[in-house]
Design a protein that fits this description.
Layout (H helix, E strand, L loop, with lengths): L5 H18 L9 H12 L11 H24 L4 H27 L6 H7 L5 H10 L6 H24 L6 H24 L3 H9 L7 H20 L3 H15 L5 H26 L3 H4 L2 H18 L7 H4 L1 H11 L4 H12 L5 H26 L3 H5 L11
């Protein structure tokens, strides 16, 4: 194997660093970090300046970033402690979005779009919860009924798409066998979570606590071990590895759901958001097919996908109309129609599996980027948040910008 391209790796790391700074350089206009990372990746990549390109080593780090992205999605489900009613309405809303999405995806496939209709439907039924949480916090909406509605729909818009793509993008055993295996996998994950919560040998607990602030970092190492083990298990069973990463986030999230666990989570966020996840999104930019997007057909398809995100995913907000009223329901529509990280992941996985053409994927990712830039801005204005509140960073929004 050829030696690693250290020059490209340094440029990828530089792009991830610059993205973090540029995204918050203007106090009144905070850009989504993930969008800046992808754009900078495109800029330094083969389709623009040609300064950097991905190699097997960078791709490996990128894959690890994808693993950590889904791992933190699982952690968020536990951490947000969304009320059961909101979770129930969110799941019902996602089912509605999926039904509309599958219909739209089938129509697009039949009309000549080179992608499997169900993949398009699932991608257009996602919500970028990690991107929305700091925006809600900055706008002081997180503790309001609107914020609760966004969280309920956001959890559903992350959890269920992950399950669907993990099972059906593999297609190894057949649908019935895969559902049974999914149930079995879920039982194993639940058992792992129960064991982690109940089986706490005093000596092990003491070592974990004592090494939190030392070079030992036993709790961090144990968390990464659980992550790697469940990723391996999911892959060996036949599911996509992202399901194992998400399940690990759920298990570790339950274990860390106390004041002592916050320090460990911060350490894990340093590894994920400080190193691996940015590499994934910058590498996405390196590999992004700009030429396909910047054609008339590519831009037209991106516009169609952007509108479909609003219609398909935003349809879930109708279940909240009586509780929120017309104006805030429309605000919720724009919030939940914001999607990018999972869209990037679905396109990435779907392209590898031959379920979506790279040109179509470029348009879909382009639509996701525009949704992240535009939809939350419109949503906060409709919600009545002030300009300062909506764009001034708060201490609660230091992480989870993906």
């Amino acid at each position: 194997m050829a030696p690693p391209d250290l020059g490209s790796l340094v440029l990828v790391l530089a792009a991830s660093t610059v993205a973090a700074i540029v995204a918050r350089m203007h106090r009144r206009l905070i850009l989504p970090t993930v969008v800046v990372e992808i754009v900078l990746g495109i800029l330094i990549g083969p389709e623009a300046l040609g300064f950097a390109e991905s190699d097997p080593y960078i791709e490996f780090l990128s894959t690890m970033g994808l693993v950590f992205l889904f791992f933190f999605a699982g952690l968020e489900v536990v951490e947000k402690r969304v009320p059961r009613r909101a979770l129930g309405l969110g799941a019902a809303g996602w089912a509605m979005s999926l039904a509309i999405g599958l219909t739209a995806g089938t129509i697009l496939e039949e009309s000549g779009v080179d992608a499997e209709g169900w993949v398009l439907g699932v991608a257009l039924a996602t919500t970028a919860l990690g991107t929305l949480v700091p925006i809600l916090s900055d706008a002081r909406l997180l503790g309001t009924p609107l914020g609760t509605a966004v969280l309920g729909n956001g959890v559903a818009g992350e959890f269920w798409p992950i399950v669907v793509i993990s099972v059906f993008l593999t297609g190894v055993y057949g649908s019935v066998a895969e559902v049974l295996l999914l149930v079995g996998f879920g039982v194993l994950v639940a058992l792992a979570g129960w064991t982690a919560l109940r089986a706490r040998p005093p000596t092990v607990v003491r070592v974990l606590q004592e090494t939190v602030h030392t070079t030992g970092q036993a709790a961090v190492r144990l968390s990464i071990l659980v992550l790697a083990a469940l990723v391996l298990l999911a892959r060996d069973v036949g599911f996509d590895f992202v399901l194992g990463a998400f399940a690990a986030g759920l298990v570790i999230g339950l274990v860390l759901d106390d004041p002592d666990g916050k320090v460990v989570r911060v350490r894990l966020e340093g590894i994920g958001f400080g190193f691996l996840i940015p590499i994934y999104f910058v590498t996405t930019g390196l590999d992004f097919d700009v030429d396909s997007l910047l054609t008339v057909s590519g831009l037209a398809l991106a516009a169609v996908f952007l509108a479909l995100l609003f219609v398909i995913r935003g349809s879930a907000s109708l279940l909240w109309r009586r509780e929120l009223g017309p104006k805030r329901t429309l605000s919720l529509t724009f919030f939940v129609a914001t999607g990018l990280p999972l869209i990037v992941a679905i396109v990435d996985i779907g392209t590898d599996r031959g379920a979506i053409d790279a040109d179509v994927g470029a348009s879909l990712v382009g639509a996701g980027m525009i949704s992240v830039l535009v939809y939350p801005f419109v949503a906060t204005r409709l919600a009545g948040a002030s300009t300062v509140a909506a764009h001034t960073p708060s201490p609660a929004s230091d992480v989870s910008e993906y």
